[in-house]
User: Which sequence fits this backbone?
């Protein structure tokens, strides 16, 4: 089937932009989505670009169509800078911030639920619904727009009691009332009654927007996790969902301490080759409905030639190998390929010429995105990547260790990254480059549900549990090869 690729539209990289432009039509309902739709999982963990927001946006649209109540907390609702500016530190305030954040989050979520019920059920102001409406009206919830202000105000009330000049008994009573959510308690039976006939889903997404790695930012997230666990026990018809980046989930001690309590609620989103192919195939069909009868491999070959002539590698494998198995990266590369179709010699299909032209742009984008993704843990990673510029793409263990040792000893100028690089153990640096996906390791044999290989270079996102010291061969991730002008010299 010959298609006019000028009409190819693979959609937006952003779920927020795409939900009204086609996502609802070509969304891929993978296993992770099914677990969340059923309520079996409530915490979605994944790296940037793995489709967390797409899942949440699709759930919101689906549940709204069913007539269920849906609340979405968007990135604009969070302001980590506001938290730090208005609250005393835990040490200065002599107060346990995580508990305070947990109860403040509960208060916020309850008020948002009450406001939503009151707004949508005004025609049914009887019994439990009337109780909730009266509360929302008397507490002026209809006039409150900013969730972060509600949260901060409640935290300030706790802080003022904790640090204020109250008499002992009065202070204890006021503090107990705040921590026990006394003003909310009387409405819980009414909420339970409403939930008997009403489903409510709260979706809290993109918690990394504006992230500043501050004390308050960490307690903000840890408190949210605790609050979510408590609200999800109220009724099967009330579910609070959280989406969080893998990096934040793994590196906030306050969350890690509660990991055992929430483990059964956590789903880590991962993609394999076939799932990514299915995803891109659905988007091709959205542009070309006449191709709907084709399966995913044939849909790919209706847009791309089958193989790269120079390496006899399948074009799908070549492009996927330059991602970290994230849908956003695959979409970015494929869209760049379509934009460079004039470089193709294959007529109406994207060939090696177009892919090579697109890769020049994609490689720089991906390398910079990788540095940006981990900017709080490892600032100025681009300066570290630069030590590899113009060198080889492949290394044996000894050569790589020598290069990293020279780096941490100051023989290479890592400029702004020197603050955390110099005097670091070179093995620790290797571990960091491996975990962020910049390094891939040669694994002689690997068999799982996604791959069955006699040997391959695999990334941390594919095989996270190997001992690097047992690995004899490494390569820089292919996504970075073009931008860093690496020489393809296999060892």
Assistant:
């Amino acid at each position: 089937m010959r298609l006019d690729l000028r009409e190819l539209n693979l959609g937006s990289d952003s779920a927020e932009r795409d939900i009204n432009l086609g996502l609802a039509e070509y969304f891929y309902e993978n296993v992770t989505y099914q677990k969340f739709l059923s309520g079996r999982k409530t915490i979605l963990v994944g790296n940037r670009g793995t489709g967390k927001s797409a899942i949440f946006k699709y759930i919101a649209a689906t549940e709204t169509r069913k007539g269920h109540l849906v609340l979405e907390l968007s990135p604009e609702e969070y302001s980590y800078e506001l938290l730090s500016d208005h609250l005393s530190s835990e040490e200065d305030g002599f107060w346990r911030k995580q508990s305070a954040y947990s109860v403040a989050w509960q208060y916020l979520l309850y008020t948002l639920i009450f406001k939503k019920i009151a707004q949508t059920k005004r025609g049914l102001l009887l019994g439990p619904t009337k109780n909730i409406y009266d509360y929302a009206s008397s507490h002026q919830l209809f006039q409150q727009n900013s969730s972060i202000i509600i949260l901060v105000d409640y935290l300030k009330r706790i802080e003022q009691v904790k640090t204020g000049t109250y008499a002992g008994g009065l202070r204890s009573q006021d503090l107990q009332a705040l921590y026990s959510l006394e003003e909310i308690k009387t409405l819980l039976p009414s909420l339970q009654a409403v939930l008997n006939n009403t489903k409510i889903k709260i979706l809290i997404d993109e918690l990394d927007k504006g992230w500043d790695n501050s004390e308050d930012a960490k307690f903000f997230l840890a408190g949210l996790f605790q609050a979510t666990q408590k609200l999800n026990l109220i009724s099967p018809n009330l579910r609070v969902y959280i989406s969080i980046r893998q990096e934040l989930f793994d590196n906030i001690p306050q969350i890690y301490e509660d990991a055992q309590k929430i483990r059964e609620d956590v789903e880590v989103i991962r993609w394999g080759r076939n799932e990514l192919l299915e995803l891109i195939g659905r988007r091709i069909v959205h542009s070309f409905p006449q191709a709907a009868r084709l399966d995913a491999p044939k849909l790919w070959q209706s847009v791309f030639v089958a193989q790269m002539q120079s390496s006899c590698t399948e074009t799908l494998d070549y492009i996927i190998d330059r991602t970290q198995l994230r849908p956003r990266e695959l979409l970015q590369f494929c869209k760049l390929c379509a934009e460079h179709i004039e470089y193709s010699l294959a007529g109406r299909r994207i060939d090696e010429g177009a892919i090579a032209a697109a890769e020049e742009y994609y490689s720089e984008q991906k390398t910079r995105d990788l540095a940006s993704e981990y900017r709080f843990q490892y600032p100025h990673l681009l300066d570290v990547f630069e030590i590899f510029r113009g060198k080889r793409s492949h290394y044996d263990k000894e050569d790589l260790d020598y290069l990293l040792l020279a780096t941490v000893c100051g023989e290479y100028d890592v400029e702004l990254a020197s603050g955390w690089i110099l005097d670091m153990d070179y093995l620790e640096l290797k571990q960091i480059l491996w975990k962020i996906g910049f390094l891939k390791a040669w694994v002689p044999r690997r068999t799982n549900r996604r791959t069955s290989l006699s040997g391959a270079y695999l990334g941390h996102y594919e095989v996270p549990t190997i001992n690097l010291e047992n690995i004899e061969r490494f390569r820089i991730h292919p996504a970075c090869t073009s931008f860093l002008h690496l020489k393809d010299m296999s060892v």
